[in-house]
């Protein structure tokens, strides 16, 4: 009889996008962790996208940074925590004493928990006395922050996810929601299924997976959002669709906003021409918006990541203010946050121009409030350096020390070559991370091992202001420590009081109390956690998700706030919202004959940021294995590149190499490249080296969506791929990408030099000895070579090489690595370059949740005469979990049935 205790599931929060899904983690007897959606969490009600569902595959210790390290004579060596912390504190103190507090900086991350963020900002702004602390949220959400502050008086998101359920029209602007926020997209899809009359409008230069749900897609010219929404504002005012009573009583600045809109955007035909969209489609959008009271306008990086990002945000908000569609159920502007705790970071002053608890650095009363509460020796008196300017200052030598925490700026920043020059020059580079080898860590003088997801404990806040707990369910590995603790340790070594925190709970309580301190009268702030003040440790441990502002009800129960502005009172001193005049302006860098194409960047479906976490999960690599350059076929023909072949994208700032594809969703004159690949996963695929460093003048957010580039052929003599259980050294290969498989690594590669002896080259690359079990096939006239290395009866490595890109399918080969022995048919198939017998090639993965390939879906459509996505799901399960693959299944249904009918 088994009397072993049943393992208990720990409730936590997903560490990826800003939807903020609840998860449960259950330890299994074999040491694995079972991950599931938390059915009680309000953000997702048990649903998870494939990234969240694959979290259990990312928590192993391979590649983890487990011990502090310091650099001596150019080489990192393991060190004790005492030595490493002394190196950090001593280095910071020496630089501050000689050059002042503004000579040091922190660069942090939306991956941090609120408690970590709080201690970092307290240290920099209240004790070191500099506001030189910025965050990678600057790269994705700072335009939304600035737009909120200009319109509402504070960084306030008015609505909640329930508003999507109640809306009669959902407008998605600059957001591939289906891929970037899948659970929120599925909420919209269920709304559409339940109420087909609900209108879905997608505004995006690309035709993305999100457009498969849309009633209307407006493929606007990149950078023209302000023209579009100024035109809408003008149309609404001209047709009398405005809430005059609301405008009079609760807003300021309408006439100035209308005057700015009238200059270029009063004529819908002129707007349509400028935005390069069909005039009838434009009028359908304008008319639908005018006729529908319950409208949600949700926007994300396509709006924010622009040199006019803040104006884009305000042009959207203006339309909601004009119609009074804000603060009520089913309506309002809605910023879809990029990172799991971008909002939590903003709550504690994570950006260089903010103070904790939604207070402002440029407000003397606010500075006094924070300094008094902290009893700190000083307070930053002016805004600090924003991300792009920070790394410019490091290169210039005015900032001499930088502490990078939980982010990888060598990959994620624009003009990444400049970031490299800055880090090479910096006197002291400290990095806190969970991964040992990253592009940024290569420049660290001190490496500090931090806790990762599943090990750390604290809170995060999602896009709808919902505070949730991240809870630890794994022990701290090696010598890793919580980020808040590392920061507090350094603070104490710098001689500062006020950092004697014993737990994340104590940090959170101080944070909550600061939101209440002097929060009344003329200084009243909307952000208020009074209901969470004084929580005891057990209460903090059991804290349920709650939306701020949070107060206590009559019976002492927590009362959150689903929506803001229901009382029509805003956070400006006069209680009114402000219309903002948004004069349209083009992107900062126009195309020219040398750089004639517009580069747009963004995410792919199954990867996250710079892949330090998702790159470890084999199932997440199956859908999009390599970086790519998506471009229109006619542009490819014009610039001499072919689909499936390698090309170089270059700008005046840098270059990268990836494979050309024709996704079918991009207009002529533009290219799209994903952001994820780094120096550990590819030889030359960091798109950040190409992106221009121009920023929005208000928010400081870079223009990731519009960089003039050229595309040219990257000539190679041969293409190959390797599947190997052991790691390979690829220094001599012109181009390569590493893809994590199940029990092996896959390498896609290409080279420029002719291979005179392919067998000898392959053996040397794979490290195969002469006496190894080595089976190979060569067609010297065609340049084709195939080989397999077998150890015992199990496949150890295989290599396929050709002068062309038409190499064998990878999926069936990958399946061989799960077998303990190769059959004779398997061996024959390896040498023939195709699956034989029962091992069918399933094709590239479409549904990552259930591992269903394209060929499997297409075969089932034909064999079983499937006509709808639910029929495909019933047959194969594909599309039955997170739904991210549903748009792709729809396309396969159309293509396959059309092919069969032809």
From TrEMBL:
<dbReference type="GO" id="GO:0043546">
    <property type="term" value="F:molybdopterin cofactor binding"/>
</dbReference>
<feature type="domain" description="4Fe-4S Mo/W bis-MGD-type">
    <location>
        <begin position="7"/>
        <end position="63"/>
    </location>
</feature>
<dbReference type="GO" id="GO:0042128">
    <property type="term" value="P:nitrate assimilation"/>
</dbReference>
<dbReference type="GO" id="GO:1990204">
    <property type="term" value="C:oxidoreductase complex"/>
</dbReference>
<dbReference type="GO" id="GO:0045333">
    <property type="term" value="P:cellular respiration"/>
</dbReference>
<dbReference type="Pfam" id="PF01568">
    <property type="entry name" value="Molydop_binding"/>
</dbReference>
<dbReference type="InterPro" id="IPR041957">
    <property type="entry name" value="CT_Nitrate-R-NapA-like"/>
</dbReference>
<protein>
    <submittedName>
        <fullName>Nitrate reductase</fullName>
    </submittedName>
</protein>
<keyword id="KW-0411">Iron-sulfur</keyword>
<comment type="similarity">
    <text>Belongs to the prokaryotic molybdopterin-containing oxidoreductase family. NasA/NapA/NarB subfamily.</text>
</comment>
<dbReference type="GO" id="GO:0016020">
    <property type="term" value="C:membrane"/>
</dbReference>
<dbReference type="GO" id="GO:0051539">
    <property type="term" value="F:4 iron, 4 sulfur cluster binding"/>
</dbReference>
<keyword id="KW-0479">Metal-binding</keyword>
<dbReference type="GO" id="GO:0046872">
    <property type="term" value="F:metal ion binding"/>
</dbReference>
<dbReference type="InterPro" id="IPR009010">
    <property type="entry name" value="Asp_de-COase-like_dom_sf"/>
</dbReference>
<dbReference type="Pfam" id="PF04324">
    <property type="entry name" value="Fer2_BFD"/>
</dbReference>
<keyword id="KW-0004">4Fe-4S</keyword>
<dbReference type="InterPro" id="IPR027467">
    <property type="entry name" value="MopterinOxRdtase_cofactor_BS"/>
</dbReference>
<dbReference type="InterPro" id="IPR006963">
    <property type="entry name" value="Mopterin_OxRdtase_4Fe-4S_dom"/>
</dbReference>
<dbReference type="Pfam" id="PF04879">
    <property type="entry name" value="Molybdop_Fe4S4"/>
</dbReference>
<dbReference type="InterPro" id="IPR050123">
    <property type="entry name" value="Prok_molybdopt-oxidoreductase"/>
</dbReference>
<dbReference type="Pfam" id="PF00384">
    <property type="entry name" value="Molybdopterin"/>
</dbReference>
<keyword id="KW-0500">Molybdenum</keyword>
<dbReference type="InterPro" id="IPR006657">
    <property type="entry name" value="MoPterin_dinucl-bd_dom"/>
</dbReference>
<dbReference type="InterPro" id="IPR006656">
    <property type="entry name" value="Mopterin_OxRdtase"/>
</dbReference>
<dbReference type="GO" id="GO:0016491">
    <property type="term" value="F:oxidoreductase activity"/>
</dbReference>
<dbReference type="InterPro" id="IPR007419">
    <property type="entry name" value="BFD-like_2Fe2S-bd_dom"/>
</dbReference>
<keyword id="KW-0560">Oxidoreductase</keyword>
<dbReference type="InterPro" id="IPR041854">
    <property type="entry name" value="BFD-like_2Fe2S-bd_dom_sf"/>
</dbReference>
<keyword id="KW-0408">Iron</keyword>
<keyword id="KW-0534">Nitrate assimilation</keyword>
């Amino acid at each position: 009889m088994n009397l072993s205790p049943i393992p208990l599931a720990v409730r936590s929060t997903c560490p990826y996008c800003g939807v903020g899904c609840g998860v449960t983690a259950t330890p299994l007897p074999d040491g694995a962790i079972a991950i599931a959606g938390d059915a009680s969490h309000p953000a997702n009600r048990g649903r998870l996208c494939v990234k969240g569902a694959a979290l259990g595959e990312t928590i192993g210790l391979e590649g983890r940074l487990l011990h502090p390290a310091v650099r001596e004579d150019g080489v990192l060596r393991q060190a004790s925590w005492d030595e490493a912390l002394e190196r950090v504190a001593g280095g910071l103190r020496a630089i501050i004493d000689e050059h002042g507090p503004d000579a040091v900086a922190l660069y942090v991350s939306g991956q941090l928990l609120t408690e970590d963020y709080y201690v970092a900002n307290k240290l920099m702004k209240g004790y070191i006395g500099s506001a030189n602390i910025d965050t990678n949220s600057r790269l994705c959400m700072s335009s939304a922050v600035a737009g909120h502050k200009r319109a509402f008086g504070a960084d306030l998101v008015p609505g909640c996810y329930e508003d999507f359920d109640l809306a009669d029209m959902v407008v998605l602007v600059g957001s591939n929601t289906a891929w970037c926020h899948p659970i929120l997209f599925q909420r919209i899809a269920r709304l559409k299924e339940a109420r087909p009359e609900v209108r879905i409008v997608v505004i995006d230069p690309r035709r993305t997976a999100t457009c498969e749900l849309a009633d209307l897609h407006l493929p606007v010219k990149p950078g023209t959002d302000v023209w579009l929404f100024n035109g809408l504002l003008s149309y609404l005012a001209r047709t009398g669709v405005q809430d005059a009573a609301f405008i009079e009583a609760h807003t300021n600045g309408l006439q100035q906003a209308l005057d700015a809109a009238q200059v270029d955007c009063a004529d819908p035909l002129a707007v349509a021409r400028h935005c390069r969209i069909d005039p009838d489609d434009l009028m359908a959008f304008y008319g639908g918006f005018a006729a529908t009271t319950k409208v949600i306008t949700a926007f994300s990086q396509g709006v924010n990541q622009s040199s006019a990002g803040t104006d884009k945000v305000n042009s959207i908000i203006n339309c909601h203010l004009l119609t009074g569609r804000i603060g009520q159920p089913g309506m309002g502007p809605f910023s879809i946050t990029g990172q799991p705790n971008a909002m939590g970071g903003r709550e504690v002053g994570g950006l260089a121009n903010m103070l904790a608890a939604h207070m402002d650095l440029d407000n003397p009363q606010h500075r006094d409030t924070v300094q008094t509460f902290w009893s700190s020796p000083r307070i930053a008196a002016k805004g600090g350096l924003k991300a792009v300017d920070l790394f410019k200052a490091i290169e210039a030598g005015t900032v001499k020390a930088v502490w990078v925490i939980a982010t990888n700026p060598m990959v994620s920043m624009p003009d990444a070559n400049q970031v490299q020059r800055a880090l090479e020059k910096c006197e002291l580079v400290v990095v806190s991370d969970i991964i040992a080898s990253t592009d940024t860590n290569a420049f660290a003088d001190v490496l500090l091992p931090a806790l990762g997801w599943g090990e750390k404990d604290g809170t995060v806040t999602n896009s709808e202001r919902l505070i949730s707990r991240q809870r630890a369910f794994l022990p701290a590995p090696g010598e890793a420590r919580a980020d808040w603790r590392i920061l507090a340790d350094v603070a104490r070594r710098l001689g500062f009081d006020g950092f004697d925190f014993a737990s994340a709970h104590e940090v959170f309580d101080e944070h909550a109390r600061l939101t209440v301190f002097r929060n009344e009268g003329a200084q009243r702030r909307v952000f208020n956690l009074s209901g969470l003040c004084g929580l005891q440790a057990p209460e903090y441990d059991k804290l349920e998700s709650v939306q701020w502002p949070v107060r206590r009800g009559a019976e002492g129960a927590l009362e959150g706030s689903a929506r803001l502005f229901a009382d029509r009172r805003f956070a400006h001193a006069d209680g009114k919202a402000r219309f903002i005049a948004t004069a349209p302006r083009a992107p900062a860098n126009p195309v020219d004959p040398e750089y004639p194409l517009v580069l747009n960047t963004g995410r792919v479906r199954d990867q996250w940021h710079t892949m330090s976490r998702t790159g470890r999960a084999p199932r997440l690599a199956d859908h999009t294995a390599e970086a790519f350059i998506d471009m229109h076929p006619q542009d490819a023909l014009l610039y001499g590149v072919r689909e499936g072949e390698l090309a170089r994208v270059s700008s005046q700032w840098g270059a990268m190499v990836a494979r050309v594809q024709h996704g079918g969703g991009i207009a002529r004159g533009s290219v799209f490249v994903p952001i994820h690949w780094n120096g550990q996963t590819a030889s030359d695929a960091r798109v950040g080296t190409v992106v221009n460093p121009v920023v929005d003048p208000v928010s400081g957010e870079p223009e990731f969506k519009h960089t003039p580039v050229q595309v040219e052929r990257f000539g190679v003599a041969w293409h190959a791929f390797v599947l190997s259980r052991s790691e390979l050294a690829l220094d001599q290969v012109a181009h390569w990408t590493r893809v994590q498989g199940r029990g092996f690594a896959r390498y896609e590669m290409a080279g420029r030099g002719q291979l005179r002896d392919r067998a000898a080259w392959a053996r040397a690359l794979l490290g195969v000895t002469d006496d190894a079990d080595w089976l190979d096939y060569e067609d010297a006239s065609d340049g084709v070579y195939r080989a397999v290395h077998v150890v015992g009866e199990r496949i150890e490595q295989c290599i396929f090489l050709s002068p062309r890109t038409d190499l064998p399918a990878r999926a069936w080969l990958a399946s061989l690595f799960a077998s303990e022995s190769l059959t004779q048919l398997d061996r024959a198939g390896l040498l023939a370059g195709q699956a034989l017998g029962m091992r069918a090639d399933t094709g590239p993965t479409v549904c990552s949740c259930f591992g269903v390939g394209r060929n499997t879906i297409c075969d089932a459509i034909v064999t079983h005469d499937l006509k709808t996505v639910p029929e495909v799901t019933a047959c194969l399960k594909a599309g039955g979990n997170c739904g991210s693959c549903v748009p792709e299944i729809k396309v396969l249904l159309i293509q396959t049935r059309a092919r069969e009918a032809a």
